[in-house]
Amino acid sequence: MGRITKRGITDHPLRDFLSQYYRSNPIDLQPLTDLKFRHFRLRLLDGSFYKIKHKIHNSADLLESLADYTPLDVYYSTATWLNPHLIASRLDKDILKNVYLACDLSFDIDISNKIKTLGEAKEQAIALNDFLNSKGFEIRYNAFSGSKGFHIVCDDPWRTEVIALAPIDREMRAVAKRKEIVQEAKAEDILFDEKVTIDTRRIIRLPGTINSKTGLMCTLLTKTELESDIETILKLARIKGFPTPRIPQQREMTAPSACKISGSLGRLGVRPGPEGNICFSMFYTNNIPETALKIPVLEFEGWTSKGKLHKIIENAQRQYGLGTIYLFGDDEKYWAVSLKALPRRRVEKILAFSNSTNLPQCKKYGCTYTRIGKSVGMKGEIVQREPELIGIIEATLVGQVSRTHGEFFSSLGITLREKDGVLCGANLDKLELVHAIIE
């Protein structure tokens, strides 16, 4: 991790590009009403969040903060507040910190267990547009989030109905009204993230800013653009010159090309190319949250013979005391995973010793990315099955063990063999999972 100042991590590979991008592309804030009453939050290059501590009156004010902090992601509050820069918990007794004014009616439609593809998310967004129009609500904008879905934002339909109530009562009334709309939309079988719509304390990605998950722009869409094909929408969201390499869909005789672009959160940036099929998949990083340690994940090409593979793994296991190795595979690759917690340099030595194909990735970006989910195409077809556990090579592990990755594998139904190691790192909910577009 580079040195952190008010201007962010000074040696982060994306800092100069982000700074130049926001200086050359001032954010159009017209889609936001009551700008000076909005709360803005930035996700910085080290993965932390920063709340802008003053009111934003115009694009120049916002640009100043973007130049100072060079954020990976930019968000704004769906609600407006008398003192947005002071916003605090509802439990805070200082009333001036929580003077609620109004709240947009906002909807977030993402790929999920029920919505399998970006195309399905788009169809839900279109259906939601029709529903909102039938209710007479004013849709302020539709946007592609730059990653897994779409945002639909309406003006607050109840803004002027009641003005005499205390601020907290107005806020609770707004929550109740939104719950009613959620139930009505659900009755129409429309799928969206209900919590985003109901919660008056939500922040939402600012249109015109970069989504660090993919390197695509959060892009405003006309109704016609929303109804176009997914490839057209992705083209609208592409940012010329964004320095995030594509992830090849087919096996190539080259080093892996994943790009970590969000500091300690380990997000994955990919640049969709102009040709080729696009699909989505899920990856996990080898970072152990809340520590500076990592687990060794060795990667090998699928043509490696089983005998050679086991010999390489067992040699590394003995040489570096890696303990039990969990061996995964799909049609194209093998991954050998140890839960031992080690410094980055030690992990790189192990990868080099084993001729692991993800060594260049670890050296360049500070961590490795390992696919854990299916690769799913635009039409919902399975492009590549998820990696499966194909073997366990047991050995005693002495030292620290990643609590995070251990809980993750346990959640997949894998019985862990580590009994004597000292657990380190955060719980499972802090695991760095990356949803990436793959070309």
Describe the model:
The protein is an alpha+beta fold and 439 residues long. It folds into two domains: 234 residues, Alpha-Beta Complex (DNA primase, PRIM domain); 180 residues, no CATH class. Helices cover 27% and strands 25% of the residues. Strands 3, 4, 5, 6 and 10 form a five-stranded antiparallel beta sheet that branches. Strands 16, 20, 21, 22 and 26 form a five-stranded antiparallel beta sheet that branches. The longest helix has 21 residues.
Can you name the CATH architecture of the largest domain? Alpha-Beta Complex
Rounded to the nearest angstrom, the distance between the terminal CA atoms is 28 Å
Q: Sheet with the most strands?
A: 5 strands, antiparallel
Number of helical segments?
11
Q: What is the overall pLDDT average?
A: 84
By CATH reckoning, the class of the largest domain would read Alpha Beta
Helix content: 25-40%
The global form is: elongated
- Report Rg: 23 Å
CATH homologous superfamily of the largest domain, by name?
DNA primase, PRIM domain
CATH topology of the largest domain: DNA primase, PRIM domain
Q: Per DSSP, what share of the residues sits in E-state strands of 2 or more residues?
A: 15-25%
The number of E-state strands comes to 26
Q: What are the segments in which pLDDT stays under 50 over at least 5 consecutive residues?
A: 1-5, 243-276
Q: What's the structural domain tally?
A: 2
